[in-house]
Amino acid sequence: MPRKPAATARTRHPAAPRAPRQPRTAPSRSPAKPPRVTAKPARGRRVEPQARRQAILDAALAIFAERGFDAARLDDVATRAGVAKGTLYLYFQDKEALFEELIRSAVQPVFEGMSQAARADNVPATETLGAFFTLFEKEVLGTHRRLLLRLIISEGPRFPAIAEFYYREVVSRGLRLLREVAARGAREGDLAVDATARFPQLIVAPLLMSVIWDGLFARLDPLDARGLLRAHLDVLAGRPARSAP
Question: Which residues lie below 8 Å from residue 186, measured CB to CB, with a gap of 6+?
Answer without folding.
Answer: 193, 194, 196, 197
